[in-house]
Specification:
- This protein has one domain: Jelly Rolls (Sandwich), CATH 2.60.120.620.
- The longest helix is centred in the N-terminal third of the chain and has 19 residues.
- The protein is globular, with a radius of gyration of 21 Å.
- The protein is an alpha/beta fold and about 325 residues long.
- The protein is built from 8 helices and 12 strands.
- Strands 1, 2, 3, 4, 5, 7, 9 and 11 form an 8-stranded mixed β-sheet that branches. A two-stranded antiparallel sheet has the order 6-8. A two-stranded parallel ribbon has the order 10-12.
- Bound molecules: 2-oxoglutaric acid.
- 2-oxoglutaric acid (AKG) binds next to strand 4.
């Protein structure tokens, strides 16, 4: 019997996420562009992303470690907070050389005001689209344990080294995410944060053992290698948007070449199963605690906070004291 000739049947390549016709809003990885999710007015009023945007958000977060959620905050609210922060900065700068500069760059730690109430906006602190994104990425019942902020001071000249905020021992899984909210339009000119897409997937592989405060934790050879393929980028982030990022993602504060401050709020959330030590402070007897408890309860988010006297809150709002490590509370809890 004559041998059967091998027949090559042309196979149509399966549609994948790398096929632009499959998810047109997902930029090809090689483009090194962050995913942008723009919720519709209907999604914003319901406080929930639709299925197409959930797919896009999770694709961006799992692939890149960063997604920009566009136009979900009233910009007038951010103007008001920005005004407060400009005055706060004047006070902070009076501390002179004793004021800690993050990584020695012109970048200082400052918390946004939870009080007086005229500066507390629900779409900033109780943003249901952000809460939805957190529960999608980290799972239900995430804890909210950080409220702080970074100010890239005007006329800056120095950049920060590339670093990850996850300097503690952590699992190779999404365990902590941060919602960064700029109070001004942010671009490379005024120090939008440099982000390195996909670097959350390195986990601890590219990190040196914990080092003293002020040192970076990412090994130079990994940064040099990554520079050749997918280097860090500074995105344009419009005021009113949220830069949502996995805490493991490499990033760096950049010099603000403009003559105006660039303030950025940071709200930090951990997976329910991550037993972090951090708590944020709220001013006692001001209704802030109650407002946060009530505003989060239907969203599967648990705020972990310590009430402190108002005077103490005002003094410590700008403190640089976030703790990223885990609390061992019983034997064998930590692997
Ligand atoms: O302000 C920024 O853009 C980022 C700052 C930062 O990453 C830091 O201070 O650790």
């Amino acid at each position: 019997m004559a041998p059967i000739a091998e027949v090559t049947v042309p196979v149509k390549a399966p549609a994948t996420a790398e096929d632009p016709s499959y998810m047109p809003a997902l930029p090809h990885k090689s483009l090194n562009i962050p995913v942008r999710v723009k919720p519709s007015p209907e999604e914003i009023s319901k406080g929930r992303l639709n299925d197409a945007n959930i797919k896009l958000l999770l694709s961006g977060m799992h692939r890149d470690g960063v997604v920009i959620i566009e136009d979900v905050i009233d910009t007038a609210h951010l103007d008001k907070i920005n005004e407060f922060m400009v005055n706060d900065t004047e006070k902070e700068l009076q501390k002179g050389d004793s004021l800690y500069r993050n990584f020695g760059a012109e970048n200082i730690q400052q918390g946004p005001p939870l009080f007086p109430p005229e500066f507390f906006f629900d779409d900033v602190y109780l943003n249901s689209i952000l809460f939805h994104a957190v529960t999608l990425y980290l799972g239900p019942n995430a804890s909210w344990n950080m409220i702080t902020g970074n100010n890239a001071l005007p006329n800056g000249t120095k950049r920060q080294p590339v670093h990850s905020d996850a300097m503690c021992r952590h699992p190779p899984a999404p365990f902590y995410a941060i919602g960064n909210i700029y109070t001004v339009d942010a671009s490379p000119e005024n120090a939008s944060t440099e982000i390195w897409l996909g670097t959350h997937l390195y986990n601890s592989e590219a990190q040196c053992p914990p080092r003293p405060k002020g040192d970076t934790n990412i090994l130079d050879e990994f940064v040099e290698e990554r520079k050749k393929t997918l280097p860090g980028i500074q995105p344009v982030v419009k005021k009113g948007s949220i830069l949502f990022r996995d805490m493991r993602t490499w990033h760096a504060g950049m010099p603000n070449r403009s003559d105006k401050q660039r303030f950025m709020i940071a709200l930090g959330f951990s997976a329910a199963w991550w037993h972090g030590k951090a708590r944020f402070r709220v001013p006692a007897k001001t209704g802030t605690y109650e407002r946060l408890m009530h505003g989060t309860k239907d969203h599967g988010i648990f705020p972990l906070m310590n009430e402190v006297p108002l005077e103490e809150y005002n003094q410590l709002r700008d403190a640089h004291d976030f703790n990223d490590s885990e609390q061992p509370s019983w034997d064998t809890e930590i692997y």
